[in-house]
């Protein structure tokens, strides 16, 4: 059975443009990667667990924020690894400078799961996001009518 992951894609409207909130993974592997390295805040969940509840939990663990609002389901995307990622768009605002991530330990050192977060216009987000998650931006753009 493939691994399952769930996350949220927060969005907001600023200066008549749609912006999305993405996070950059922490740790030495990602330290020098930028283009194509950012992600929606997400994490794995077990079969039988409610994917939306998992997405909300992971969002809080990775950012320190609690998401609320209308969660718009996006079509799950299968990653090259075989992992299936479930996502929901949610209109909300938060300050990336206030992100507080949980941590992980690798080779005896502790790193934040997320080392930074930012708001990006859709055009800029397409350059930053992991290629396997581009479809979430397309779905959000198609389903969201901005001026």
Describe the structure.
With 147 residues, the protein is of the alpha+beta class. The protein has a single domain, classed as Alpha-Beta Complex (Nucleoside Triphosphate Pyrophosphohydrolase). The chain has helices spanning 51-63, 122-128, 134-143, and strands spanning 4-14, 17-25, 42-45, 71-78, 84-91, 103-106, 109-112, 114-121. The mean pLDDT is 93.
If you consult CATH, what is the topology?
Nucleoside Triphosphate Pyrophosphohydrolase
CATH class: Alpha Beta
Q: How many angstroms separate the termini?
A: 42 Å
Strand proportion: 35-45%
> How would you sum up the global shape?
globular
> Helix-strand pattern, N to C?
EEEHEEEEEHH
> Which bin fits the share of residues in helices?
10-25%
CATH superfamily: Nucleoside Triphosphate Pyrophosphohydrolase
Radius of gyration: 15 Å
Mean pLDDT: 93
Please tell me the CATH architecture by its name: Alpha-Beta Complex
Number of domains: 1
How many DSSP H or I helices?
Answer: 3
- Which secondary-structure class do the elements indicate? alpha+beta
Low-pLDDT residue intervals, each spanning 5 or more residues: none
The major β-sheet equals: 6 strands, mixed
Please count the beta strands (DSSP E, at least 2 residues each): 8
């Amino acid at each position: 059975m493939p691994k399952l992951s769930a996350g949220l894609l927060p969005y907001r409207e600023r200066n008549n443009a749609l912006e999305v909130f993405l996070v950059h993974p922490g740790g030495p592997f990602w330290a020098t990667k930028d283009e194509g390295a950012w992600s929606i805040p997400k994490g794995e969940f077990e079969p039988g667990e409610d994917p939306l509840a998992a997405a909300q939990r992971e969002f809080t663990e990775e950012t320190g924020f609690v998401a609320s609002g209308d969660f718009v389901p996006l079509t799950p995307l299968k990653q090259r690894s075989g992992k299936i990622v479930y996502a929901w768009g949610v209109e909300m605002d938060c300050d990336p400078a206030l992100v507080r991530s949980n941590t992980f330990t690798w080779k005896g050192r502790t790193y934040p799961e997320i080392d930074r977060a930012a708001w990006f216009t859709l055009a800029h987000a397409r350059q930053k996001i992991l290629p396997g998650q581009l479809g979430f931006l397309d779905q959000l753009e198609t389903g969201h009518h901005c001026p």
